[in-house]
Structures are given as C-alpha cells and as structure tokens.
C-alpha cells in the first residue's frame, strides 16, 4: 500500500477504539461531576466538548495523502510521455502546443499534490495531538470515578462524613490540576486548528487562482462541496453541545440534568437515514449518539441522500 492508503487504513483501525474511549469517558465522567463538585464539573466539560475522533482525522489525512500521491504519479507519467516526443516522431506547431499544454497540466497536478500533502500533514499533527489528549482525558475519567467510589464507600461504610468530605476536597484539588493541564492542551489544539484553517484557506484561494491561470477554471462547489456540508454539520454539533451546557457558555456548576444530557447524548439512538420508523435505521450506544441527542447528525443523515453527489462524502473512496 502507498503511504496515503496506509494512513487511511491506520485511521480506520484507530477510529472504533477511540470512539469507545470518547463515549466511555463522556458517560463515565458524569456521576463524579454531579456528586463531587465544581472542579470535577469543569473537567467534565473538557470531555463533553472535545468529541473529535483522532482516527477519523487520520483517515482524512490518508485520503489527502493518497490524492497527493495520485496527482504526483500522474504528473510523472505525463512528463515521461512528453519526454518521448522528439523531432523524429513528432514536430511542428502541434507538437509544441502539446508540450506547452502538457507543461501547464503537469504544473496543475503538482500544485494539487503539494496542497494535498500539506493538508495531510496538518491533519496528522492534529490526530496525534488529539490521541495524546484523549489518553489524558481517559486517565482523568478513571481517576474521578475512583474518587467517587471512595467517596460513596466512605458514606456507606460508616467511616463518616468527615472522611467523605476529605475525599471530595482531594478530588476537587486533583481535578483543578487536571483542568489546568486540559486547558493548556486545548489551547495548543486550538492554535494548531486555527493555523490549519488559515493554511487551508490560503491554499484553497491559491489553488483556484493557479488552476485558472493554467487554463482550468475550477468551480469552488466542485472542489469543496462535501467539505462545506461537513463543516456545517460540525458547527451544528459543536453549538448543540455548547448550548446544552449552560447559558453564556459557563460550564462549571451546571445542574445535574445538564450533565445527564451531555452524558446520554453520546450513546443516544440516532437516525441514520432511510425509513424513519425502521428500527434498523437507528443506532445507539457506541455506534450512535451525537450532540444534542443526535439531532444535528440525524438531520444530516436525512438530508444527505437528497444532496448533489459532489456535496456528500463517498461511501467507499475509490483510488484510481
């Protein structure tokens, strides 16, 4: 397999495991957040609001890298064809026009390959950073659940309220330290994301201009159709999570039911498309779930079949 195909396969293998980790953390952090106090609630927010799967990012990186490899291979093949043209087998104005047009086409292919390669590199950095962050959030969830067990055991076994209060204070102190690290890491991820978005935008504008200068005026919708739809769905899921927390975005000290919604939404049955009343078209647990009890994802799944082909993701990418 090529490098891109290897990355895509790696992401496909990673994705189910991280999906389990992400949903388990979102479910597991809720009880200690409700019981133990503000710092644990603030830590839970980092779990609720960071639901991006590193495996999916790695798959996207693999797709871009494969595109880069295919474009580069096509440019090299065209270059080899042009090299075979000489005065003995083809000459004159037609031959020169062919060489000029081939040079323009090679430049387009190589520019697209470079653009795709850089986008793949950005996604790999994000995927690796998020994978490390989720390992940290998993350890946070396990630690807070252990504190909760100790706290409830102290209350149930007759050790008494003073011991339970000490455990609760220790849990909040530990959670406060973890929140500090989480916010630092989120700042790094945010910086990487903003840099990637800026580079992606710059590359896209340059690509349109460059392709047009080489005689290939591309339609933005043809190139970015599915990406625009994905972006809108991503924004919808983000704000569904954000606004089901607390007013004004203050996520600490939320009511217990708000933590319950954030926990349940990750495993809530979600519509997958097709016959709305067919139970087979609803997935729950690790295979379902989504922000806002799955509403944005369900709407996207319902609308997707009615969108133009260029505005939706292919079921299975075909590398030709």
Question: Secondary structure elements and their pairing?
Answer:
Blueprint: H1 3-28, H2 30-36, H3 38-49, H4 54-83, H5 93-156, H6 161-213, H7 220-243, H8 256-264, E1 270-271, E2 282-283, H9 295-303
Antiparallel strand pairs: 1-2
Helix pairs in contact: 1-4, 1-5, 2-3, 2-5, 2-8, 3-5, 3-6, 4-5, 5-6
Keywords: Coiled coil, Membrane, Transmembrane, Transmembrane helix
Protein name: PPE domain-containing protein
Coiled coil: 68-115
Which structural traits does this protein have?
membrane; transmembrane helix; two-stranded antiparallel sheet; mainly alpha; 320 residues; elongated; transmembrane; coiled coil; 73% helix; PPE_sf; single chain
Explain what the structure shows:
The chain has 320 residues and is mainly alpha-helical. The protein has a domain at 1-84 and 95-188. 73% of the residues lie in helices and 1% in strands. The chain is built from nine helices and two strands. It has helices at residues 3-28, 30-36, 38-49, 54-83, 93-156, 161-213, 220-243, 256-264, 295-303, and strands at residues 270-271, 282-283. Strands 1-2 form a two-stranded antiparallel ribbon. Helix 2 (30-36) packs across helix 5 (93-156), helix 3 (38-49) runs antiparallel to helix 5 and helix 4 packs antiparallel against helix 5. The longest helix has 64 residues, at 93-156. The chain is elongated, with a radius of gyration of 25 Å.
Main pleated-sheet profile: 2 strands, antiparallel
Structural class computed from helices and strand pairing: mainly alpha
Poorly predicted runs are none
Alpha-carbon Rg, integer: 25 Å
Coarse shape: elongated
Tell me the distance between the termini.
Answer: 13 Å
Tell me the number of helical segments per DSSP (H or I, 4 or more residues long). Answer: 9
What is the β-strand count? 2
Helix and strand pattern = HHHHHHHHEEH
Strand content: under 5%
Strands side by side in the biggest sheet: 1-2
Overall pLDDT level: 84
Q: Provide the helix percentage.
A: over 70%
Keywords: Coiled coil, Membrane, Transmembrane, Transmembrane helix
InterPro entries: PPE_sf (IPR038332)
Protein name: PPE domain-containing protein
Transmembrane segments: 112-136, 148-167, 188-211, 223-240
């Amino acid at each position: 397999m090529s490098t891109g195909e290897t990355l895509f396969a790696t992401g496909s293998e990673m994705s189910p495991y991280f999906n389990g980790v992400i949903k388990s953390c979102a479910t597991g952090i809720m009880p200690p957040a409700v019981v133990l106090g503000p710092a644990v609630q603030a830590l839970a927010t980092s779990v609720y609001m960071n639901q991006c799967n590193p495996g999916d990012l790695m798959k996207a990186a693999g797709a871009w890298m494969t595109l880069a490899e295919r474009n580069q291979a096509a440019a090299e093949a065209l270059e080899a064809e042009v090299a075979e043209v000489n005065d003995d087998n083809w000459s004159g104005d037609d031959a020169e026009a062919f060489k000029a047009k081939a040079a323009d086409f090679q430049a387009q292919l190589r520019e697209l390959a470079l653009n795709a390669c850089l986008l793949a590199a950005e996604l790999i950095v994000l995927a690796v950073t998020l994978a490390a962050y989720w390992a940290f959030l998993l350890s946070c969830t396990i630690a807070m659940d252990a504190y909760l067990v100790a706290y409830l055991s102290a209350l149930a076994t007759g050790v008494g309220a003073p011991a339970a209060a000490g455990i609760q204070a220790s849990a909040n102190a530990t959670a406060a330290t973890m929140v500090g690290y989480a916010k630092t890491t989120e700042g790094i991820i945010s910086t990487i994301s903003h840099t990637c978005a800026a580079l992606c935008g710059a590359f896209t504008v340059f690509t349109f201009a460059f392709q047009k200068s080489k005689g290939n005026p591309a339609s933005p919708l043809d190139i970015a159709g599915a990406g625009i739809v994905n972006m809108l769905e991503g924004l919808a899921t983000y704000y569904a999570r954000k606004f089901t927390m607390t007013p004004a975005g203050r996520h600490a000290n939320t009511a217990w039911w708000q933590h319950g919604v954030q926990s349940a939404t990750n495993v809530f049955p979600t519509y997958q498309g097709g016959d709305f009343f067919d139970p087979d078209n609803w997935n729950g647990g690790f295979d379902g779930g989504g922000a806002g009890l799955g509403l944005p994802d369900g709407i996207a799944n319902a609308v997707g079949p009615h969108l133009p082909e260029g505005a939706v993701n292919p079921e299975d990418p075909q590398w030709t």
